[in-house]
Amino acid sequence: MTQPSISRIVLFDGECILCNKAAQLIIKGDPNELFKFASLQSNYGKQLLNKMGGDSANWNSIILVEGDKHFIKSAAVLKILRELRGYSFLYHILKLFPRIFLDSLYNFTAKIRYKIFGQTKHCVIYQKIEFSKRIANLPENS
Question: Inter-axis angle of helices 99-117 and 17-28, to 10 degrees?
């Protein structure tokens, strides 16, 4: 496992209802608060993407930023699942599959997520007070 002192930021699509639900699931499974969150549409999310050499319009993925490294798609999901209380069994099952298969499944889900789960104009994580300390780059978190 990675040292707790390393900053771990989960970048996600704040307009995607499925992505918001996934972020809430991560928060609930992360009682040690290892992960902070930023939407891809937020200023901080855009700054992080810019540092990685991209912009939010071109990224259609969950991204885990861990120190100076970043992981996308299934690699990010697996690294997150490994740390979540109550979800390590999923990590152990999913890591048995080839990454190309997991990324293909991820890409398919990403392509249809708005049609199946819907879209919102307001990121739920940013709206709920109980999640405020988990948002990356807020002044009270610095």
Answer: 120
Question: What confidence tens digit (pLDDT) does each residue in 10-45 have?
Answer: 999 988 999 999 999 999 999 889 999 998 888 888
Contacts from 79-88 at CB under 8 Å and sequence distance 24+? Answer: 80/10, 80/26, 80/35, 82/1, 83/1, 83/30, 83/34, 83/35, 84/26, 84/29, 84/30, 85/29, 85/30, 85/31, 86/29, 87/29
Strand ordering across the sheet containing 8-12: 35-39, 8-12, 63-66, 69-72
- 91's tokens: 């990590």
Which strand (E) or helix (H) includes residue 104? helix 99-117
Predicted local distance difference test score (pLDDT) of residue 7: 81
Please give the backbone phi and psi of residue 120, each rounded to the nearest 5 degrees, phi first.
-130, 155
Whether 107 contacts 61, CB under 8 Å: no
What average pLDDT does this structure show over 71-95?
93
- Token pair for residue 33? 């608060």
In the block, residue with structure tokens 């992981």? 71
User: In this predicted structure, what is the pLDDT of residue 115?
Assistant: 93
pTM value is 0.85
